[in-house]
Automatic annotation (TrEMBL):
Domain DRTGG: 108-160
EC class: transferase
Source taxon at top rank: Bacteria
Originating species: Flavobacterium anhuiense
Matching Gene3D superfamilies: HprK N-terminal domain-like
Pfam families on file: AAA_26, DRTGG
An example Gene Ontology molecular-function term: phosphate acetyltransferase activity
SUPFAM superfamilies attached to this UniProt entry: HprK N-terminal domain-like (SSF75138)
Gene: pta_3
Protein name stated in the entry: Phosphate acetyltransferase
Amino acid sequence: MVEGTSFTGEGTSIELDLNVLIAKNLGIPTIIVGSGVGKTLEELLDSLYLVYDSFKIKEVEVLSVFANKVQPENIELVTSSLQKSLPSNVLINTIPIISSLNNPTMQEIVNELNAKVLFGENYLNNEIGHYSVGAMQLHNYLVHLHDNALVITPGDRSDYFGSFTGK
């Protein structure tokens, strides 16, 4: 398996040409993966068609086309558009954007801060979906608390520590 470049930033046409030439010279089939992040549906589809055509012009076999990080409500539309426009022997895959994959775990926060874990070692693999600063009185703060939240609080707020740890 050979991983090509990612086509981000300037010079993407040069990167695409380079990837096509590498696949052609090595005689390897290709799987195309395109990201829907920051693109309209039309831009995503057009970019996938352009990349597909670039490989086919150079007679490089394309096994599959992945539309990655697509808004869930657009999955069916993207899939059907690709199926209509590409040959039936090309596998079409559309993957929804899953925002939680961007969430760090408590272990990653601990590592990044070089922190010492005082309690809760069993929860270090929990994902952090939200964060907030808890400095107001606890009963006022609780209405602002979310699931999977990292609460940043001053060290002298022992009421917070006991409330969130069950101790």
